[in-house]
Amino acid sequence: IYNIIISIQGSSTNISLVKLSKDNKNNFIEVKYVNNAEFGDEDFLDNLINSCLNQFKEKIRNNCLNSPLILARLRKILSETKNKFDKEEITNAEINMNRLIGNYDLKLSINIDNYYTACIGLFRKIIFLIKETIINSGIDIEKINDIILEGKMAQNTKLKKMISELFKKKNENIYNKLIDKSNEKEDQNHIIKGALIHCYNKSIYFPQYKIINIS
């Protein structure tokens, strides 16, 4: 069984193509190819923050917008908003920052399209990395059974749609096999964790395993 494991964490994205197999004695996680990039969930949030800052600057001309205190307040507010956008729990949000500069209150309306537009380059990077991983692994895309998504971005509806469109050309059933639920108590190594998530969702008994072909 060939799987793609996509782990999008704080500042890194790791994409691995693995093969799950077993003999009479052991289960094996065979790593066929690993692709790493230095961008992750935090970069999506940063892009959303910068998008809002640009809109704020259209309303007021003040260099204080780049102060650590203001950025920290904005990051906290937009982190919660981003998580809701990812799940599409909301499509619009009101950003209110009271007494931003002196007694000046700043209000801004943003929607999910603003978020997607600000981050479209990152979405495309992930799709490119997936394509690159498949090509460099030498595995036919039709042989890939499942996609396991890890991290907060695993909840992102747009990302799942883009991934499903990538695989639907070869396998129209892949969309139903997207997995976005992860158990944080499991192994923190994204390859092992992804394999265990897959087995858990498929009700496969996989209590012990060996890893081979790690370079």
Number of strands: 8
Helix-and-strand structural type: alpha/beta
Query: Helix coverage percent of residues?
Result: 40-55%
Cα distance, first to last residue?
Answer: 21 Å
- State the helix count: 5
Order of helices and strands: EEEHHEEHEHEHE
Using only C-alpha atoms, the radius of gyration works out to: 20 Å
Query: Spatial order of the strands in the main sheet?
Result: 7-6-1-2-3-8
Which band does the percent of strand residues land in? 25-35%
Tell the overall outline: elongated
Q: Give the quaternary arrangement of the chains.
A: single chain
Ranges with pLDDT <50 over ≥5 residues? 182-186
The largest sheet is: 6 strands, mixed
Overall pLDDT metric: 80
Description of the molecule:
The protein is of the alpha/beta class. It is 41% helix and 27% strand. It has helices at residues 41-59, 68-87, 112-137, 157-168, 190-201, and strands at residues 2-8, 13-22, 27-37, 92-101, 104-111, 144-150, 178-179, 210-212. It has a 6-stranded mixed sheet with strand order 7-6-1-2-3-8. The chain has a two-stranded antiparallel ribbon with strand order 4-5. Helix 4 links the parallel strand 6 (144-150) and strand 7 (178-179). The two termini are 21 Å apart. The relative contact order is 0.19.
What are the defining features of this structure?
215 residues; two-stranded antiparallel ribbon; 8 strands
Walk me through the topology.
Elements: E1 2-8, E2 13-22, E3 27-37, H1 41-59, H2 68-87, E4 92-101, E5 104-111, H3 112-137, E6 144-150, H4 157-168, E7 178-179, H5 190-201, E8 210-212
Helix pairs in contact: 1-2, 1-3
